């Protein structure tokens, strides 16, 4: 089973958002309903979630008016209220405001070979009830600038690549400064990077211009036809840390801060040891992560708890839904070609035939 794809022909943000909402209204509504259920379990009733979502939409519109208009138009097309689609885009911020914690999350690896394009791969771990939420969306925010993003129905962007030779991976973080007055959603930050950036410096400038209220690592990878570059932008309300690839061309990220200054506010601590174990697993399998084929890179991600690092996550059916984590997809970016490859599911189910290129 593959992830669905949608190609938008509209350059105008309002027209693009409305058309997306018309086509995927049922799915966007299901995404909102799923998150509303999650928020409610964590103590967020409809009144509070609506207020947080409206604040997030206002912050988005002030920071990136076109993206705020696109969210509102998507809601119109889907027959929803703008705050409901805003809630999907701001789910990380709402979860931070509700004090949510979790055991799962993603593992990312970037290798910069000499004389060849970057080789990347990541797992996308999330609640198993959201397994039908992802799609790949292709659009042009301006003529000639094509973007492909792996995202969720209703969310403007997440993991992706653009035609300027830049791509982004995505890992959630948690910091002591999270959860204050709602800021620009980190998913919206990733979307604007894909829409506007061609260099690491562009991406960093965009990230630093946003006031945020939740933490995420956006790993930015570029290729100019000769040389690849990569850095993780660790975004949190206290600032933005920049973690570059090492001299060996390797950049790994799981779900803890690597910037020394921001790491002092790390909010995971001993409650989430899995992130550190997964990071060590990636380091130990660096050779495999440099493989040419995405399916071969995925093999290097294969690890299950308790006998190994939980890189490939599987839910425990008896657990409450908010505690069930699953690797819902494995994604690789082809920066040189401006395309991405997706395997629906975790590394343990990956084979050459299970990957689709978008």
Brief rundown of the structure:
The chain is α+β, with helices and mostly antiparallel strands and 358 residues long. It is built from 11 helices and 14 strands. The longest helix has 29 residues, at 13-41.
Mean pLDDT rating: 95
Q: Which oligomerization state do the chains in this entry correspond to? A: single chain
Please report the distance between the alpha carbons of the first and last residues.
14 Å
Q: How many β-strand stretches?
A: 14
Order of helices and strands: EHHHHHEEEEEEHHEEEEHHHHEEE
Envelope shape: globular
Q: Would you kindly provide a written description of the structure presented here, covering whatever features stand out?
A:
This protein is an alpha+beta fold and 358 residues long. Helices cover 34% and strands 26% of the residues. It has eleven helices and 14 strands. It has helices at 13-41, 46-63, 65-78, 82-89, 91-97, 186-196, 200-208, 260-263, 274-284, 286-289, 294-300, and strands at residues 5-7, 108-111, 119-127, 134-142, 145-152, 159-162, 166-173, 215-223, 228-236, 239-244, 250-253, 325-334, 339-344, 355-357. Helix 1 (13-41) crosses helix 4. The chain is globular, with a radius of gyration of 18 Å. The two termini are 14 Å apart.
